Amino acid sequence: MQTTNNLDIKNARQHIEADLKELIEKHSYQNFFHEIYDYSLLPAGKLFRPLLAYATAMDFGINLDNKDAHNSIKSFSCALEIHHTYTLIHDDMPCMDDDQYRRGRLSTHAKFGQWQALLAGDALHGLSFNLINKIKCNNKYEILNYAHWCLGAKGLILGQALDLDHQMTESFENLVLTHKLKTARLIQLAIVGAYLQTENTTFQQAKALHRLGHHMGVAFQLLDDLCELEDEKLSEHESVVNPWLTRQTQCFNELKRNLEYQKHFFEKYGCENLRFVYGQYLGKILSIIENSKETIISHLSQLKNEEDVETAQAASLDPIISLLNTLTL
Amino acid sequence: MQTTNNLDIKNARQHIEADLKELIEKHSYQNFFHEIYDYSLLPAGKLFRPLLAYATAMDFGINLDNKDAHNSIKSFSCALEIHHTYTLIHDDMPCMDDDQYRRGRLSTHAKFGQWQALLAGDALHGLSFNLINKIKCNNKYEILNYAHWCLGAKGLILGQALDLDHQMTESFENLVLTHKLKTARLIQLAIVGAYLQTENTTFQQAKALHRLGHHMGVAFQLLDDLCELEDEKLSEHESVVNPWLTRQTQCFNELKRNLEYQKHFFEKYGCENLRFVYGQYLGKILSIIENSKETIISHLSQLKNEEDVETAQAASLDPIISLLNTLTL
């Protein structure tokens, strides 16, 4: 399926990681934040959002031989990862989620101290917009404006607030709203922002990608919650907050709707690179679900507060597995 | 001295306050941050930085009848106040300066909670750059770039870090460096950023304003420290950290140099509005110093670690008072 103009994910990851390394050296001073940046950003994680940006840009024919275009997508991709990292640093702080560990290592505040984490987060927040400002393309104003909408007080930050305010668990609508804001917005920015750097953009295509990003982001979180059920014994916290245990049919229908839109999108628009990057992620999810299918179903069968009659259908994971199979092909 | 094209400070303050009120309604959602924004930004303080921006723009002939030009300077001025407010909210947090009060009221985290303050600060931080992105002028890229340099990890945020790390008190050079970063950078942005929105800008003029902002910012803090000595009895903390008590000659010489540059600047470039706005502030300082001259000098006479032979001159405030008089005329 991969033809000449395809994204080599392994290679792209190495490049993005090298770009991040270069950037944090350039944008810190007197080594003050350098160590914190280095620790928090590197070694890089999956680089999911930067890869989505590169994939989208390539799907819409960005000319990487053009220096300005190449530097723009590079700068934009790093901005996404840097912004993501700032939100994680602030999220982990004692006054927020109070997490001492992230990815198996001490979280930034636990390692360096709280004011250091707060200020390094602030600095990375500013740096991400600084990097978006480096983009050279006709739509730069629109990209920056969209970025602020996605990431500000009506976007990602509102999602963080709804989560901490426990509004997220009050209703299924609030759960989806929180996922949309806290997770989907940055994914939307990755793909719509990258698309807007290509030539001959249309409003209709941007809108379809915006919608795709929404469905990817919400599915991302619902699948994450579903995979949590692979453990035979759930923690008390997981038993209480995992939405699949209390709002199973709604989760099932919402996830199905999200995946169906994605299927529809890729059938209509192609976008092989984007499909490939996202498919890699979905492939991992699929193997978890398939390997732990019985355990997951046994959790799902112990319904709580489930009033819906479609329980039997919901408890069967087959429609989800079938959609995931289509999307990872 | 005031001619037709002059800034009416009282009127401008009312307009800026109304603009801020409008903006925070527009840029919050579901009333989530609205109350925090409202409490933290309003009633507006001196609006020193927005007024500097308006004054500079008028001194360099901005055409406020042009809708784009007017909206741009409006948006930019609000960005300055909003950015300033975000830094104060984060500065007051328990893991930073741990201040329960600001301007005689509970600080934001004391009033609303810590995660609310952290996220509202983040949201205002993003909003300030969003508003700068709304500027319509040829130099927008340069303004945004300069803003990031002034306010990021090599600018204001580094200043906050040096302060919290107690590096600020290690040497006089570090004290001036901290004032330069933590205070002067935002003042520099106010005047250089406003200038860059006017027509026919030159690099040389921008550089002179950049330098003026530096001297204004450092003088601002040194004068603030000097005014602290108006109280006959100083707190133990003030006795230890006030630089005028331990590095008197250096403070004196630095402040004198700062004020002399300002005098030189206004003699050379005019800029009556800018001079007027800054002069209003200096006028208040001058009256404090004149009214408490004897008390201040009595503190200055009790020298600690003062090795300099120019003590007698330094202890006399006359050269400073004379310069302040010139600048407030």
From TrEMBL, chains A, B:
The keyword Kinase does not apply. It comes from the Bacteria. The keyword Metal-binding applies. Its cofactor is Mg(2+). Keywords: Isoprene biosynthesis, Magnesium, Metal-binding, Transferase. InterPro entries: Isoprenoid_synthase_dom_sf, Polyprenyl_synt, Polyprenyl_synt_CS. Belongs to the FPP/GGPP synthase family. This is Polyprenyl synthetase family protein. It comes from Halobacteriovorax vibrionivorans.
